[in-house]
Amino acid sequence: MTPPFGVLLMAYGSPATLRDVKAYYTHIRGGRTPPAEQVAELRARYERIGGRSPLLEITWRQAAGVVQALGQAGLPARAYVGMKHAPPFIAEAVAQAAGDGVRALLALALAPHYSRMSVGAYRAAAEEAAARHGLTLSCIESWHLHPGLISALASRVREAQRQCAGDTDVPVIFTAHSLPVRILEWNDPYPEQLQQTCVQVAAAAKVRAWRFAYQSASATGEPWLGPDLLDVARAIHREGQTECIVCPIGFVADHLEVLYDIDVEAKELAATLGLRLIRTCSLNDDLDFISAVADVIRAHLPQGALA
């Protein structure tokens, strides 16, 4: 009997409850306990979005959708979900796959743009766990120009444009999670890949005016990549604009960085400026996005994986 082939979908993770915020934050900090005021601030952000992030549930739905799409294409597979900073951890997902008899895993971080600090860290965790269990592991490092991803993002920009008085004249701010400036010393491809996605999505959606901003930088005491979304929103207001669209191209699901950093923090700033800010709908487990992810996986299947 042929051992089942496994797909490992990896994401950042989020605390399951408000009580888990401290443990989650501690894990992000490499085991160092964060100051109480920082824990309280992060907990308050989760409170503003209803007490918890929907990321884990969305990721499981994405996994189920990918399995269905692969099955319809004649590629039976099992999907596993592993988080970087919260249960189920990446190592736990790999262990589960091994226990199920899986001998080959294809890992995909649900972040289309590669950086050594983000996708590279997911990959390292998966590789370490796979080696421990004797699994063959291959990883997809980036998929930022996949036509299905570009099409899905462009369709959401067009949907947001239909809500605007200015239609295609309304400026679009594409955003992604900021990272420390030191990644530039490594010739990290992250900024360039983000720009490439922006160019293609803007062209597909016929966006006439767009710019890029980073968001969600952490207070670590070192410089982070900019410009920041809030500063770009202020600049757009100073230029006399009354509307703008924010499209978080670096994120593929609703979670804190979207539901708080954009929907609460950025929108509250925009409201004080008299600027109407419209955020594009997240990709989540929508069919067009799931089809794109399944196609990415099909294109990267190791030879003989499903033989």
From TrEMBL:
Gene3D superfamilies: 3.40.50.1400. Its EC number is 4.98.1.1. It holds the Pfam family Ferrochelatase. Catalyzes the ferrous insertion into protoporphyrin IX. PANTHER family: FERROCHELATASE, FERROCHELATASE, MITOCHONDRIAL. NCBIfam families: hemH. This is Ferrochelatase. It comes from Candidatus Segetimicrobium genomatis. The lineage of its organism: Bacteria, Bacillati, Candidatus Sysuimicrobiota, Candidatus Sysuimicrobiia, Candidatus Sysuimicrobiales.
